Each structure stands twice: as structure tokens, then as C-alpha cells.
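LAB NOTEBOOK - FOLDING QUEUE
OPERATOR: T.R.
BATCH SIZE: 2
PURPOSE: Compare the predicted C-alpha cell outputs for two unrelated chains run back to back under identical settings.
PRIORITY: normal
REVIEWER: second-year student, initials M.K.

ITEM 1
FIELD SEQUENCE / FIELD STRUCTURE:
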Amino acid sequence: MPTWALGILIPNLTEMSEKQMWWTNRVRAIRSSPNPEEIKSTIFEGILGSSLPEEEKTDARMAHDAQLIGLAGEGTTAYTLTATLFELLAHPEDLEKVKSELATAIPNKNRVPSYSEIETLAYFNAAIQESLRLHPGVMSRMPRISPDVEVVQNLARREMGMVLATILNRYDLYRGQEGRTLELYDTIRERDIVANHEMIIPMPAKGSHGLRIRVRR
């Protein structure tokens, strides 16, 4: 369905359709580039160089793959990470408990901790789990059962923990003091954080700028 028609019949899907078109145009630009190195820096090199039939190497198929990887690997994790940071900044007492745990486990605030350094921090991981419960990165219901192998934490969960630990260990909540601080700015939970509608991943209210923070160094 053309984007203009979608905007009339199903307005909520217009943005998704426009993103799909952006991905398709990007694929075409890469394929037609005179620079052979450009495609080597993308996921498309493996697809085009594979033994897949030509109908599996179309612009549309590769655009769908690229969009799926970007959505699954970036959008979901980014949403939950953003929501977790908001909730902690909005609840100073909980934030201080998390920061105290991090300061003890990682005295050097200027480096990125390893996952082994944070995986046993009870309060820190409880905060992440609660945020995952309140703000899941995927809205669609996709139940999964693993009858033979235990389901363990995935790479995205580990990366989110490491990024969040780095930020919270390095910055304090702003209370008028000098130094590296974070301060919530014009962010309303119901408008900017809580899912107002979904495009597979949760989306804030229309016109929302999402989480906004003043960063002082």
C-alpha cells in the first residue's frame, strides 16, 4: 500500500512505512555504490555473496532484514535502558542504593565495568528486572518455551547492565552541586516513558521527545 494511502487509512502505521522505505532506499544506494568497500561494512555482503537464490537477495528482503536487526538489536534495548534510567533518576532513594553498590564493586568510575563485576549486585540487578517488568522492550506477545535447555540472560541484557552501571557510577543526581551530574528535564512518565502505542516496540505519546536529561560535567 502506498505511504500516502496508508496515512489516510491507517495513520498510526505511516511512520513505520516511511522507515521501511528509508531502509529500501538505503539498500539500493549501497548496492549501486561504485565503492566496493561500502557494502563490506554492512550485513549485506554475506547475503549477496551467499548461495541463496536471487529472489532471496532482493532490495525488499535485505531492507526487511536490516530493519529487523536494527529494531531487535537497538530499539528494544534502548527503550528499556531509557526507562530504567528515568525510573532511577525519578526515585533518588533507590538511585542512591544502586550507586552505593556500584561504588563498592567498581571504585574506578572512569572505566566500563565487566559483566562479571555487576552480575552479583543484588539491588542493581533488581532495579533492572523491575524495569524490564514495567517497561518491556517488545509489546507483541511472543511466548517462547525451552523444554530442554535452561533460558539464561541474553547479550542485550548484559550490555544494558554494563552501560547503565557505567553511567550511574560516573554521574551523580544533580542537587545544585558542581561536577558530573544528571538531571531530568521536561520528562513526564505518562507522556514520555510509558508506552502510549506500539510499533512492535513501545512508543511514547505523539509529539513526545522521550527522555530528556541535563548532563553536567
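ITEM 2
FIELD SEQUENCE / FIELD STRUCTURE:
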Amino acid sequence: MSKLVAARPLSQRSLGFALISASLHILSPAGLFLSAPYAESSFSFLNFAGFFLYALNLQAHDDGRPGLRDILALASGIAFGLATMFRSNGILSGLLFCYDIVRSILTVRSDAQPQKILASLRRVSFIGISGILMAVGSFFPQFLAYQEYCVQGKPEHRAMWCTHRIPSIYAWVQSHYWNVGLFRYWTLSNAPLFMLATPMLLILMLSADCTFPRNQSSSRLTSETAEPSSTPIGEGWTSPLGREIEQRFAVPQLLLAILALTSYHVQIVNRISSGYPLWYWWLASKIMSKEHISVAGCSIPMKVVVGWMVTYALLQAGLFAAFLPPA
């Protein structure tokens, strides 16, 4: 997948870039969670598979192979659905399909030729089915829980969430046991956990932000010529398809960072971010070009960033083994 975004995928730089990106995943702050019998490793694998199939779907679309494109779109929906069964944040990858649907509609509005309308209808239909396949990954486990706790057994033994307007066991458990909700985690006692999450939040946001066009006169969804201010894998080295892939992959990653900051137990962003490829590409590019990360006027060398990743992974392993935050 890393080589797919490069203008020269078989070049030495491209191969080195792919190797560094993969190595960064091994050194990910998720650390122990990627090697223990936990959901993170399975989620990362399936979410990466979904992103890869989705990227191949875009490539097939550019190559004018609609049949292969539609098959790959469906396959990516299945992979994302399986990823969502392991971790609920996998549902964010559905934003890729929403992006495609909105873009297809806007394309038809700007050029309403019969042939293009039919092609867009076909595209939207398959993307919609792909989104449904992905949503099944979220719906099916909750359906099983509803059958067990709300349908079977005596009425007096039913769980309290069964009477909710949307009887979701996931939403109830997160709210009742984990106190997850908008700004609920914003307390003074949790300030150290926000500090632990800050580096990863910045990496996610900065790597996503650099993919978006800076041409204010063109829509981000409709512009075909607006260029990003920079690209995660280096200016002048990303292919046109690669820039398209990067920009789309940035959307679920950016929303993950926003939700982690506002609604989740913020420290878990260090492990649930492991299944999103864009930020690995961004760091790999910085390492290869020997650039620093600039934050609020401060220049941070890449060896400091990688050192933080390794240190955090080791720290997290010890704390998690003792049943302490920042798990």
C-alpha cells in the first residue's frame, strides 16, 4: 500500500519508504496491544486490508476498469466491516464511502450528461452496498446482544438498555461503565492522560492537515487541480493517485483524533491509531528527508519522535500489566 501512493513505486526510495512505514508500525505506541491477544492487532490488519482494497479500487477507477473497481469496493466494505467487529472506531472508515457518494453527486450536478449520470448511479450503488457491508460489522454483534438480553428470557430479567429508543449495548456499556461522552473526560484529574495523548493527537492532526488543498477558490470535494500544501510522503514524489489516496485517508484519521480529544478516554488514541496508515507515511517521509516536525514554532527531530514511541510502548506495557492507566 505504501508503494501504491508513490510516483515511482519500484524505485529505491519507494522501497525504503515502505520498509520504514512498516517498521514504524512495529514501533507503534500501541506496543504490547499489537502482540497480546487483544483486539488491536486484528483491527489493524483488517483496517489496513480495507484501506488497501479501497486504494486499489481508486486505481481501478482511474484505469477505466469499472468491474474490478466495483468488486474491490465491495471487498473493502467487507474488510472494514470485519475491522469494526473488533473495534468500534472502524466505523469511521465508512467516511471514505460517504466521500465517494458526495463527490459522485457533485460531479453529476456539474456535468449532467446521460452517460455520466448512469456511470455515477452505478458507482453510488456499489459504494452504498459497500457501506452497508461495513455497517453490518457494527450492527451484527449488537443484534446478537439484543437477542440474548432483550428477547430471550423473562421480561423482568431484561437489561435496562433494552427499553432505550436505540437499544445499543455498546452505547450503554460505554456510557454506564466507562463514562464515555462529549467532554466527560475533561476533568482536572485526567490532565496527565491528556498530556500522554498529546503527541499522538498532534501527529494524527498534522499528518491529516497537510493533505488538504490550500486553494480556497475550489471545493475540496470537486477540485481536480488544487494541490495540497505538502504531502505526507514528500512534495514531488507522490503520484496524482497517491495524493487522492492520502486526502481520503486523512478524513477518518482526523475524525478519530477529534473524537479521542472530545469524547473518548483520550489516552487510548495511542493504541487505536495503530490501524491508520497515513501518519506512518508522514513520519516515514520526515525520517527519509531528515526533516523536523514543527509545532508552535518548536522544531522536533524525528529521533525524538521515534524515541517517544518506543518509550511510551514500554511504559504502557508495564502499566497495563499492573492494571493501571494509560491502558
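REVIEWER COMMENT (ITEM 2): Residues 114-151 form the longest helix (38 residues).
FOLLOW-UP: none requested
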